[in-house]
Structures are given as structure tokens and as C-alpha cells.
Amino acid sequence: MHQQISILNLVERPSALTKFGVWLMDKVMGVAKMNSLYHQHKMCGLSKEAFSDKLFELLALELEGIAELQNRIPKDGPVVIASNHPFGGIEGVVLARAIGEVRPDIKVLANKGLGIFSELTDFFIFTNPLSANDPKNAPSLRQCIAHVKNGNSLLIFPAGRVSHFDHEDGRLVEHDWNKIVGKLAGIADSAYLPVFVSGKNSDWFYRIEKVYFKLRMFLLGRELLNKQGNKIQIAAGLPVPQKLLKTGNNDAKADLCRALSYAQDASWHYEWPEDAIVENKPLADPINRQTIQDEIDALPNEQHLVSFKSYDVYYGYQSQIPMIVTEIARLRELVFREHNEGSGEPIDTDNFDATYTHLFIVNRNDGQIIGAYRMGQTDILQEKYGREGLYLNKMFNFKDNFINQRGPCVELGRSFLVPEYQGSFHGLFLLWRGLSTFVCKYPRYRTFYGTVSISKLYDPRSVSLIEEVLIDKNADIDVVPHNKFEFDLHPELKKYCRQEDRTQQLSAFLKSIETDGKDIPVLAKQYQKMGARFHALGIDKSFNHTPGLMLSVDFPNAPDKLLKLYAGEGWREYKAYKAE
């Protein structure tokens, strides 16, 4: 007897009446037509790989994103791969075939309905998503857990049901994901790979579900056959380590996994504006080290802020240290070019260099400047020039109630560390130690504010997520960007992020998106530790359309351990200071 494709393959010891009912269902659901094609094209007995390829050939499917998916699959070790479920069948075969080329150990937790294809059964661990009480489900789930714990790869469609059409929002959406994906993704040493498959079934399929959603099951066979010539686009994130998924219980982890899948949706797309064609001119020559030392020696003693190991931190004004400011501007240009933010000029400078305060670190051993901050003393600047005297007034509209209008602040900007000190503890520590010592000298300054530059080397999706997650939802609108970031967050991600604070989950999103492993900008993390409040995100059109995240730090209310670390012995006196 020849092998048949039939629902009968799913029935144990069928009666004559059952066989007749199944024959009728095969006709109605399009399974009989599949069986005809199965024999016509001699698919019986093919390997699961050859069967899949023949199926794709018959349907003339246009598959996009396979190479990217395969490049992102860990080559070994336990990995859980989860996807949305837009079609109800064919995506499982497509993904299993693609993943299997990289990970021959792949198993797919799938609807037992796919058991009608006996050639594919080796891919699958079967479950019954429509019956939570099916006694066969528990052993299947235990098998999945064991499979991952043994260092293998597993593909799962955690919604358990085909995506449905949300008529109110006018888009296709997933059902809630089963908490089992949270349990699986939480297995020690495993990685989680989010996948999003773009596409939809026929309009008739979604009309039927309005009548009664279970009727859709009768159309899945026909929906598979009507994919003739369709394009199926697959978008995969990068693997997220298990440690970044530690977020509450398994239900919370499942919600995060679902959101990570939506973060890969290829329809959620934005291209940064093309950079102005700027030919980088050669950097200016370094300023002679002796000239730098002569200007340092001429500074008043009180402008020496910190000595630490072989480093000294100073502050000064362009009128005092013109050549040092030129060297700072040269180094800024050097560093900013690395992040696609350079001016293209020999040095990075503007008119504000003449009015702002320059804090800088010098390596005493070789006289090299290794980093700097540009600080605006807002009371002095606004008394002379009004709000136009503030650099960030170009990016943001400061309303009368914003902190820099209510009292003296320090506006921070143009910070950098030379490449060999980026990521080092000493560089960032000394910038903050110098800044803290400065405000201890002038304790009327209680608040820092400024922007963290978010390089356009970040994917726009990451910037959109950073904006949504970090900006205080309860913040007033006392500061408004002149140029907003015109890229709305994906509706499903917006919904996820607004349910509660998602700061702890932000790194997981960036890990799945950023191909070079970038996380939240280091400086933003530092400000977070200080208790920063994030106000707005604006685009600096004069700085190569670079996004800037506006924040403020109420420094006296920063954690005491950090005040002590940065401000040293004077931290208690500074904290207790009361303006007259």
C-alpha cells in the first residue's frame, strides 16, 4: 500500500465511519489535493530535507533572509529559536529546513497536524495547542526541555495558534505566547534567537475567523497550497544570552521573547538620512607637549582639580589656555570621526569653545590629553547671552520651568576619551572625579544636564527603543526638541514597553539588534547609576543628524557611595550646602 497524505495518519485505529469522515475532511481541507501532488511528484519516501525542498519548488516560494538567519544561529550549544506564526504550517517547514543546515540537531515543537507528512516527522516534537489538557502535551514539553538541556537546538512557535487579524488596529498580531518559551529560554547556558516571519494568509481565512476562529483549522491545508509564488521574508535577531532574559517569572520571559521577535519585523524599517558628503580634511598637527605644559603651569593652583596616579585633571577657559583648547578640539575631531560624527574639519570647534569651561585630563608621564568635558555654567552664560548662550538651546526649546531656568546648572557636552582610554575605568572615573570636584568648589551648581550622543552607527530600531524605554513617561514638557526623531516604535513594542518599566530589558533588545554587540551607551549607563532623569531625544542637525538623549542629574541626591567616590572628602559638605 502506498503512503498517503491524509488526516487519517493522525488517527489511531480508525473505525469505518471515522475513515469516511476523514475522507470527507481531506476533500474539504485540501489535503486530498496535497496527496495528489505528493504522488504526482514522487515525494513518497524522500528524506525530510529533499521533501522540504520539493515542497518549496512546487509552491515556487521566494524565500528571503535565509542566509542571515543561518549566519546568526549559534553553531553549537543549547539554543531556543522562537518565531511568530503567520501561516500555520509552511513557516515551520521553511525554518526547520534552514536551521537544520546549520544545526542538524534541530527539533521543532509543532502542531500534531503536521504529522500528516510522514517524511517530515523526524523534524518534529508534536503537541496539541488547541487542547491544554491533552495528556500527550506534557511528555512533549518534557522532551523539549531535555533536548535543550542536552545542548541542542529547538524551534518553537509559542503562540500555539496562527496569528489573527486585529480589525481594530488593522494588522496581523500574535496571540499571547505560552510561558513554556520563557522556561526554555531560561535554561542555563542557553541562547535565545528571535525570529519574525512576514506574510499573511488569504482574506477569506480572516473572514472565517470572525465567525468562529476554530473554523480556520479547516482552511490551513488550502492556505498552504495557495502560497504558490508567495514571498516569505524571514528576519532573525542575534542570539540573546540567557542572563539577559532574567525578568520575572516565565510568563514575563515569554512576553519579552515575543517582543524580541517583533523587534525583528522587517516592515519596521527606517534609513538614517544620508550623511552630507564631507571629505575629511587631514587632522591638525598635535600641539607641542611643552606648549601644553607651559599653559598648565600658568593656571592658578585652584584650577587643578584632581591628581590620581599619573593623571591630573584641570579646568580652564579658552582665554587662559588657547592652545590646550585647540588640542582638545583636535582630539574631539579624531574621536568623533570614529563614530561617524566628525565635522570633517582639522579640528572640531565652534563659538561656544570661547565661552564654555573646559575640563581636561592630562597624563603626567607623557603630557598627553586623554579626555575632556565642555561645561557650561548656565548662570554666567545666560546672564551675558540669554538662552542663546547655551549650546543645547540649538537642539531643545527650554521652557521657563526647565531646571536651567530655575537655578544654576552645569550643561555638559562634547565629552570624549581618546581611543586607548575608551572603556577604561580610569578615563571615565577621572572625568567624573574632576566634574564632582569642580561643583564642590562651586556648590551652587546642584544639577548637571546635557545629552548623551547616540551614534548613527546604532540601528534606528535601537534608538527608537532607547527613546521609548529611558525617557521618563511622567516627565513634564519643559524641554522639547527642535527636531524630533521621526521613527515611531513598532505598535507591539510600544504596547510592551508601556505596560511597565522596561529598563532592565533594554539590553536584551539591543543585543538582538546590534550586529557589533553595542549596548546602551556607556555614558548613559553611568548617568543611570547617578539617578539620571531622561527628558527627551532630539536630532542635532548641525552635528551630522546625530540623536542626542537629553538628561539631568540631581547630583546631591545621587547615591552616597558614588558621591563619596567622585567628590571625595568634600561630598558631605557639598550635599549639605544650602544656597543663601
Automatic annotation (TrEMBL):
Keywords: Acyltransferase, Lipid biosynthesis, Lipid metabolism, Transferase. It holds the Pfam family Acetyltransf_5. It catalyses: a (3R)-hydroxyacyl-[ACP] + L-ornithine = a lyso-ornithine lipid + holo-[ACP] + H(+). One of its GO terms (biological process) is lipid metabolic process. Its EC number is 2.3.2.30. Residues 71-245 form the Putative acyltransferase ACT14924-like acyltransferase domain. InterPro entries: ACT14924-like_Acyltransf_dom, Acyl_CoA_acyltransferase, Ornithine_N-alpha-AT. It is an enzyme of class 2 (transferase). Belongs to the acetyltransferase family. OlsB subfamily. This is L-ornithine N(alpha)-acyltransferase. It comes from Agaribacter marinus. The lineage of its organism: Bacteria, Pseudomonadati, Pseudomonadota, Gammaproteobacteria, Alteromonadales.
